Amino acid sequence: MVDDAVVAGRGHAPASLLTPDPAPRTPRDPAEDAATLADLPDATVGRLPQYLDALSALAESGRSTVSSDALAAAAGVGSATLRKDLSHLGSYGTRGVGYDIATLHAQLAGRLGDRAGRRVVIVGIGNLGHALAGYGGFASRGFRVVGLFDDAPDVVGTVVTGLRVEPVSRLGAAVAELGATIGVLAVPGWAAQTACDELVAAGVRSVLNFAPVALRVGADVDVRRVDLASELQILSFRSRRRDRATEAVGSGPTAGSAPRARSTVAAPGPAPRLVEEVV
Ligand SMILES: NC(=O)c1ccc[n+]([C@@H]2O[C@H](COP(=O)([O-])OP(=O)(O)OC[C@H]3O[C@@H](n4cnc5c(N)ncnc54)[C@H](O)[C@@H]3O)[C@@H](O)[C@H]2O)c1
To answer: Most distant CA pair in the chain: distance in Å?
Structure first.
């Protein structure tokens, strides 16, 4: 039997900002809620975790309010972007005071759904599965890892961060028993489609896929793929493009009347950017 344990660990949100689980749900008008969520641009949703991290850090430093400029700087986005994002959520702050950190944190966390203590199962408990099972960042965002699954006989039955690894044949029954709504795939690429199909058959509609393959799913299933190798490739490409642009500036017609040697270091780099893209 799988223990219903919260994986403990280092958290991003200070205790004062964490909502206990199960959390009291604020009564809302479901129709209004659905409309608000549907209207929220994906790019805004993608930045909400950055705002949450920044608010947590500000709360940890003892602050109770923050200006939009300071919050934007802490989150690494432009002020106009932050104000626009928060206006989608109906958060405008108070002139001269800014935003109340605890209130805004609760509002953003609620919009992202982490007040519901959403339950996560991980399929594939190898190197990555182990690391994910012990990742404190899930718990601090209100996600509970409630089930671990694998198909290797030497892995099934072992205990990882307090949870006993179950055979994938138990997935269907266990997902229902555990109330899991999110599945994390940490299996090899060749096994990912089958494992995904098993998750979907078990009733899971949200899948975080770490395997380096594109998964085929129905329209009612949401898959997010995390691929660190691709991110490295993109960084590498951008670095090459930056170097080429620097070279072009150094050797172009506006570079001066005297012929210049091509150089990759002559031109000053762009001003440091605060924006850090989330993988
Ligand atoms: N996205 C990323 O940035 C990133 C980083 C590291 C690894 N990965 C990917 O994550 C996956 C796991 O990597 P790893 O290093 O942990 O591999 P691993 O070999 O250590 O672990 C894979 C685990 O999956 C299990 N497994 C295989 N088929 C299964 C199935 N059908 N059902 C259930 N369990 C099954 C294996 O028994 C094993 O325990 C790979 O696809 C790898 O490419 C992605």
So the answer is: 78
Q: How far is the CA of 151 from the centre of ligand 1 (A)?
A: 11
Q: Say yes or no: domain 24-114 is CATH 1.10.10.10.
A: yes
pLDDT digits (tens, 9 = 90+) for 16-56: 554 443 333 444 555 455 556 667 888 888 898 899 889 98
Q: What are phi and psi of 164, to 5 degrees?
A: -85, 130
Q: What is the CATH number of domain 117-226?
A: 3.40.50.720
Q: Cite the residue boundaries of each domain of the chain with CATH code 1.10.10.10.
A: 24-114
Give the residue ranges of the chain where pLDDT is below 70. 1-38, 92, 114-117, 252-279
Cβ-proximal residues to 9 (8 Å cutoff; 6+ apart), any chain: 134, 135, 136, 137, 139, 140
**CB 186 less than 6 A from any atom of ligand 1:** yes
| Best mutation site among 149, 168, 210, 213 for ligand 1 pocket (most ligand atoms within 8 Å of CB) | 210
Predicted ipTM > 0.85: yes
